[in-house]
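Section 3.1: Structural characterization of target chains.
Under the original work plan, the team committed to producing a structural model for every single-chain target entering the pipeline before any wet-lab resources were allocated. The record below documents one such target. The sequence was received from the expression subgroup and is listed exactly as submitted; it comprises 404 residues.
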Amino acid sequence: MDWEWSRMVLAGSIAEPSLRHAVLAFASLHEKFFKAGSTVQIVEPDGFVLQNYNRAIGELSINLKAASQSADLILMVCLMFIGNELLQGNNSSAYVHLNCGLKIIRSRIARAKPCSPGVVTIEQIFQRLHTHTVSFLEVANISNNPVVQLCDPVSEDLREFRKLREAGEGLHIIMSRMYKFLQQHAYLKTSPTPLSAPQVAIIDRDNQEDLLHQWFTAYTALLKRENRNLKPGELYYSIQLHVLARAVSVMLATSLDYEETTYDRFESVFSDLLKPISALVEAEIKAGLRLNFSAQVPIDQPLYMIATKCRQPSIRRNAVALLEKVKTRHGLWDALVMAKVARRLIEIEEGQAYVESSADILESKRAHCVNLTVERREQRFQIRYRRCGAHDHDWVWEEEEHSW
């Protein structure tokens, strides 16, 4: 667990019965998952988990009726409930709890209610969890986003960072705005015929790229000052931030492009990213991580992007191999499942042809607008995509279902 969780959630559970029972339910389920030894296995709650989960709901309901429960504690309980549902593969229920927490935060911001020192950290955790969840939904291309949009985060000064955590929060702000931007202009990629991006969208994208450049400058200056003082965990985090920021730069640069071939110009970036990602994977393996219930956006995301958007055969296959090797689950992101999806998309695009370079995969053979549905409890996934037919504008939708 992150230090925020240890400081706030565990301390709060001593005094608040609702939070205490929620923590006990999550901790017990989390332990069962580790002992199961399989990243794709659904963890079924036992009597102890169900008893504490139900008591947490009961205690919370009593306090809500009496108006004696603070928003801080409700948000902490929400976090525990989200963890419980994700471990059981109940994504829809996790969305419900996430939305409850986001609505509380939106209401708090709207009323401009002063926050206690710990509340800002809780809001930051929900901001990161929101970004983490929307990143998966964006990759899955889910049109009816079941997660409400969080209020625009308060702008932070991206010109200078004193600590890595400040750099991390700054990057999450940029990512949150980017996903909102991608949702607003998704029609440019899903349109049956190419459309020209409106000038306002181009200006918006350029502004976001300027912010990202500002972030990179401040982040580089921070590393130069603190590089010798970084602890192993901080070094891991710094590499993770670098990888995510480079992935964001590619997503922004291609955000308004219609053709999938636009990703071919980033082959060198994809190749350069594999080395630090490989170092991160090795670090996770040494740490014995199988599940990292954290609001940080995982390295699974850039790996999946490389595997599905880079058509250079050796680079994308190395990315898939790393996904299979990492064997971790980060909330909605499951490395092994995403690896299976990526391998299937490679088979769809390459077919039986001999592919030596990305140029061998024509635009008409590439999968567009991939819609992914993962049913963890049923251990299956569905992919829906479209490709060009006999004529340039003759798009054909195809749908498949696979189990594991």
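The first helix runs from residue 3 to 15.
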